[in-house]
Design a protein that fits this description.
The chain has about 120 residues and is of the alpha/beta class. The chain has one domain: Response regulator (Rossmann fold, 3-Layer(aba) Sandwich). The chain has 5 helices and 5 strands, in the order βαβαβαβαβα. A 5-stranded parallel beta sheet has the order 2-1-3-4-5, sandwiched between helices. Helix 2 packs parallel to helix 3. It is globular and about 35 Å long.
């Protein structure tokens, strides 16, 4: 069983991602903030994290930097409704595996997750 952590301050988005991924056979934990996500990462075995970029207090880039200190080889997907031209390069420098544009295509996301988890 593969464990995925989804981080987003939008509870509707969390629920949608969670339901979809559980139906696809993943175990899913959700967090509504970067702080909550880091707490989960310290206490759980997570294989992949999907985080929103724009969240209060700690954005997805900051979260990814801290998460990769805890789990250096964990793949991280970043999703955002506003992808600037420099975001993919910044994400790559930080160690984020993939940047997804909102609205996220569920089938494309699922394929990316499966490919990433197969490689790790």
């Amino acid at each position: 069983m593969k464990y995925i952590l989804i981080v987003d301050d939008d509870r509707d988005c969390l629920g949608m991602f969670r339901n979809f991924l559980v139906q696809e056979g993943f175990s899913v934990q959700c967090a509504t903030s970067g702080e909550e996500a880091l707490s989960i990462l310290k206490d759980s075995s997570i294989h992949l994290m999907i985080t929103d970029l724009n969240m209060p207090k700690m954005n997805g880039i900051e979260l990814a930097k801290k998460a990769l200190i805890l789990l250096p080889f964990m793949p991280i997907f970043l999703h955002s409704g506003s992808i600037s031209p420099e975001l993919p390069l910044l994400a790559e420098v930080v160690g984020i595996s993939r940047v997804l544009a909102k609205p996220v295509n569920p089938c494309a996301m699922l394929e990316a997750i499966r490919n990433e988890l197969r490689e790790n």
